[in-house]
Structures are given as C-alpha cells and as structure tokens.
Design brief:
254 residues; mainly alpha; minor pseudopilin epsh fold; three-stranded antiparallel sheet; 11 helices; binds manganese (III) ion
C-alpha cells in the first residue's frame, strides 16, 4: 500500500487477526509489538529491554501434535534464555554501537559486525517469536487466497510445496530452521543454521527475504515427543500450521 497511515491501519487490523494475543499487554514496553513485529521495526525501547512476548495460546494448545511439555520448556526456558542473553549481550556493547541499533532490523542488517552473542540471541528471539505465530490450535488444512495462488505458481501444488519444505527441514544438518520467505511476492524455501534467519545480511544465509513460515528444527523442538524422528515432527507441523495467519503475513510482506 502506498499510504503510510492506511498501511499501518491495515497492518494493525491484520496483525490483530494474525497474531492474536502474542504481544497483548506488552506493547508499551516490548520490542515486539504486533504491528512493529510484522513491519520488522522491532524497536529497542532502551538497551537491555527486550522481553518475552506472550505466547498466543496455552502450552497444551497444539496437542497432540506438539506436546505440552515441549511447548512449556521451549517457550519458558529456551526462548526466555535468548531474550535474557540478548539483553546481556546488548548491555555489553559499547555505547556507540548500541546507539546505532534501533531495532532488530538494524541488528540483522549489521550482524556481521556484531558479536556472535548478539547474532545468536537476536536471531533466537526473533525466530521463536515468529515460530509461535506460525502455529495455532486447530491449524492445518490448506492455504487460501493469494498465498495459495503463489504457492501453486511457484511450487505447482501444495503437496509439492510441503515436500520441498520438508526436504529443507530434513536436510538442515544439526540445529537450524526451515523457512518459506517472500521477495516481492515471489516465494522461496530454504533453511538456516543455528539461529540465523532470512533477514540477516550474511553470505552464509542462503535464503533471504521476508519470512512467511518458520519451522524450528532444533532437537529441543521435538525430542521429548519424537526423539530423533525429525520427519514425524515435520509431519505433525502440518496439523498445527496457521495458514490463515501465514496468508496475512504474506500479503502484508509483499
Ligand atoms: Mn527452538
């Protein structure tokens, strides 16, 4: 959309639909207000003030596909640790560097010049926040609208898209993420290592663009329920994916 105000209004409305309560009540003092999150303008109120966004559903909301204990540990321990360690790493930056980093976009754009602790934990914070909203209770089904059209145009069919996405998730050696991203409406699939993401300006990140779907393939995301069977976890993901939200993110990100 051309007009900034109408664009923001649209984003607010859509974000409310897409993100539910992911940041409800935390807007005033949170780097990840829903609208800003979608816009990737994740403002740092002041150094060391990143905080854990509210999970948009209960820990058991994705049962039986993703179990309650995994969700609880993943969110309250792993994601919390990324937030805490990001704040520590941010606090350790010199004032001049910290002063140039107004949002996570700034961090991702300059990540090659920042300490690894910033890269790893800013990535971890962003990726998990995005991942939570990629899923919902009673998810699954099929995409509709422009996202469905784009998937068919790029990958021929939903089934083929799912196969290619699962391949990317399976082939990521060790820990990392699988992504569906958009570049001006053109979709692509890829994976990143560790907590890297498609927004990071790094040669080692092979998939670049605005995230539409994220899947965490670290073992901590599935080991309790699936042990070493990453393929089973990926199959489960299709039962909880929020296609409606992904469609809204896609249309906003174009
Ligand atoms: Mn994780």
């Amino acid at each position: 959309m051309e007009n900034d105000n109408s664009r923001r209004d649209f984003i607010k409305k859509s974000a409310a639909l897409a993100l539910g309560t992911i940041v409800a009540g935390t807007v005033a003092n949170n780097a990840l207000a829903a609208t800003d999150f979608i816009e990737k303008e994740m403002i740092v109120p002041e150094p060391g003030k990143f905080s854990l966004p509210k999970l948009p559903y209960e820990y058991d909301a994705l049962e039986p596909h993703i179990d309650k204990m995994t969700m609880e540990i993943h969110y309250s321990k792993h994601h919390q640790a990324y937030v805490d360690n990001l704040n520590k790493a941010f606090a350790a930056l010199d004032a001049k560097t910290a002063g140039t980093l107004n949002d996570l976009d700034d961090i991702f754009a300059n990540v090659d010049k920042l300490p690894p602790a910033i890269r790893n934990n800013a990535g971890g914070h962003y990726n998990h926040t995005f991942f939570w909203r990629t899923m919902k209770t009673h998810g699954g089904g099929i995409p509709t609208g422009k996202l469905a059209e784009a998937i068919n145009a790029e990958f021929n069919s939903l089934e083929n898209f799912k196969k290619l996405f699962a391949d990317a998730a399976m082939k990521r050696f060790g820990s990392g993420w699988a992504w569906l991203v958009t570049n001006k409406g053109k979709l692509s699939i890829g994976s990143t290592a560790n907590q890297d993401n498609p927004l990071m300006k790094l040669d080692s990140v092979e998939v670049k663009g605005k995230p539409v779907i994220a899947l965490d393939v670290w073992e901590h995301a599935y080991y309790l329920k699936n042990q070493n069977r990453r393929a089973d976890y990926i199959n489960s993901f299709w039962n909880v994916i929020d296609w409606e939200g992904a469609g809204q993110i896609f249309e906003m990100a174009k």
